[in-house]
């Protein structure tokens, strides 16, 4: 079992890190991803987002399974019965079964399942390592190759009630930090950013941020709430559906 755990950890460490942060109006997902087709972040259901680090084909299978579970449960019972905690339990059972099975290799993935609530107190963030355990996170979480160092950086600097621009800048700074104390530059075109925004009038709270919207948020000094709303409501096309 120790060898299987080490195998999975090494596979996850080869992937790029990502971070998930709470901010005043929701939850933001930020990661370095040069691909525009292979997403690290996705919508699972109305208020639920999915983030993953590691081997793409493995976490994509898990994402698809999560969407099917959510759709079936929402259709059979009620949309409000689809929760991040229930989804995290399903993923935990799947990952735990694969990890303990002698017949197949463990998945080289680490997942984050997040749900935005009506208020910040209702937000939920769950981290699921390769062995299927569930960790209830608060404020911020990092997964992937450099997760421990990034988590320490975020723990020291993340604050409740941050604006989206402030949280986004902090996430990019954390991803840019290096073990030797220097920083690497991550251009906006190499960032994948998405939010679960509780202030959206739509039932579905997931939204991708890119292009002009992303640049304006990164360049903003200390934006007021109205300025951030203007960025989120920019006329640039958005991609809500997966």
From TrEMBL:
CDD domains referenced in this protein's UniProt entry, alphabetically: proteasome_protease_HslV (cd01906)
Source taxon at top rank: Bacteria
Pfam families: Proteasome
Signal peptide: none
Keyword Cytoplasm: yes
GO cellular component, one term: proteasome complex
UniProt keyword annotations, A-Z: Cytoplasm, Proteasome
Gene3D superfamilies cross-referenced by the UniProt entry: Glutamine Phosphoribosylpyrophosphate, subunit 1, domain 1 (3.60.20.10)
Family (UniProt): Belongs to the peptidase T1A family.
PANTHER family noted in UniProt: PROTEASOME SUBUNIT ALPHA/BETA (PTHR11599)
Name the record gives this protein: Proteasome subunit alpha
Protein species of origin: Streptomyces polychromogenes
Encoding gene (name): prcA
